[in-house]
């Protein structure tokens, strides 16, 4: 079991942000977390990475109970690609694609340590998988946002994490860059043993590789389980308190609102 949360609640500033949450992630699964703004997605990720502690309930991540194991060691096994990481790339404008990917081994963003030949070989292989070999010697300042996202995903794989959190990776990407990034994510899932947790507001980003989906609402699990049982018109209408229609074509989900609900 990779993540095990039992009746977890989190209260901050007198506000109950997470309420009686139960969630289990097993080896070999890939999860999507879908929630509207303010549902508690970021808070849930902060709990998983040990940046926040449950007020009530118990949780284990990678089999380790919180408070009984050094968090530093645990965090090395969890990658987190987020917008704030993308922001930090601004301070490494001169670093090349290869340097950024390599730096994942040392949990830094720029490269301050000397990599071995084996590290460079591993980084090169990852860059092939992520489709960014052409950015090997290109400084970050010349990269598009979509290219930076793929470089950051490559950087995360450099540490061979057991869990990789992809926190709204398609936010701000144009439709072509988004499709390219989704393809990259699918490929990485096929080539690595890392469990992916993909956080999003949009159901069209939930690719077939995400076997399981958690619908998070008001800090609670609205529903969870096999993706095809979550992304149905009935369930999504209840979830969003709006009549919505879900369709699936070429293995991709789409959501449509009736005209009078817009
Ligand atoms: N420290 C805090 N004190 C009080 N309330 C907080 C605190 N941190 C978050 N919240 C509230 O908890 C709720 C969940 O926030 P969170 O950022 O986890 O949601 P989210 O699902 O990630 O949202 P978004 O999709 O908009 O990024 C929000 O209503 C937020 O205002």
UniProtKB/TrEMBL annotation:
<keyword id="KW-0813">Transport</keyword>
<dbReference type="Pfam" id="PF00005">
    <property type="entry name" value="ABC_tran"/>
</dbReference>
<dbReference type="InterPro" id="IPR003593">
    <property type="entry name" value="AAA+_ATPase"/>
</dbReference>
<feature type="domain" description="ABC transporter">
    <location>
        <begin position="3"/>
        <end position="243"/>
    </location>
</feature>
<comment type="similarity">
    <text>Belongs to the ABC transporter superfamily.</text>
</comment>
<keyword id="KW-0547">Nucleotide-binding</keyword>
<dbReference type="InterPro" id="IPR027417">
    <property type="entry name" value="P-loop_NTPase"/>
</dbReference>
<dbReference type="InterPro" id="IPR050153">
    <property type="entry name" value="Metal_Ion_Import_ABC"/>
</dbReference>
<dbReference type="InterPro" id="IPR017871">
    <property type="entry name" value="ABC_transporter-like_CS"/>
</dbReference>
<dbReference type="GO" id="GO:0005524">
    <property type="term" value="F:ATP binding"/>
</dbReference>
<keyword id="KW-0067">ATP-binding</keyword>
<protein>
    <submittedName>
        <fullName>ABC transporter ATP-binding protein</fullName>
    </submittedName>
</protein>
<dbReference type="InterPro" id="IPR003439">
    <property type="entry name" value="ABC_transporter-like_ATP-bd"/>
</dbReference>
């Amino acid at each position: 079991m990779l993540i095990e949360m039992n009746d977890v609640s989190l209260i901050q500033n007198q506000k109950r942000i997470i309420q009686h949450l139960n969630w289990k992630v097993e080896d070999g699964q890939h999860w999507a977390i879908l929630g509207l703004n303010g549902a508690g997605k970021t808070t849930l990720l902060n709990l998983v990475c040990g940046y926040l502690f449950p007020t009530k309930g118990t949780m284990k991540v990678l089999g380790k109970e919180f408070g009984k194991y050094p968090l530093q060691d645990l965090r090395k096994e969890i990658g987190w690609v987020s917008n704030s990481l993308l922001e930090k790339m601004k301070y490494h404008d001169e670093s090349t694609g290869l340097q950024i990917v390599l730096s994942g081994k040392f949990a830094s963003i720029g490269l301050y340590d000397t990599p071995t030949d084996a590290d460079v070989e591993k980084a090169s292989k990852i860059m092939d998988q992520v489709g960014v070999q052409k950015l090997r010697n290109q400084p970050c300042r010349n990269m598009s946002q979509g290219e930076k996202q793929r470089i950051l995903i490559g950087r995360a794989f450099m540490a061979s994490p057991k869990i990789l959190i992809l926190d709204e990776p398609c936010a701000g990407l144009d439709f072509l860059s988004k499709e390219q990034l989704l393809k990259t994510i699918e490929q990485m899932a096929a080539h690595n043993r890392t469990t992916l947790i993909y956080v999003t507001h949009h159901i069209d980003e939930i690719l077939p590789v995400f076997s399981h989906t958690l619908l998070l609402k008001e800090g609670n699990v609205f529903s969870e389980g096999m993706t095809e049982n979550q992304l149905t018109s009935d369930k999504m209408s209840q979830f969003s308190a709006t009549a919505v229609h879900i369709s699936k074509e070429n293995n991709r989900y789409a959501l449509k609102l009736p005209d009078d609900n817009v």
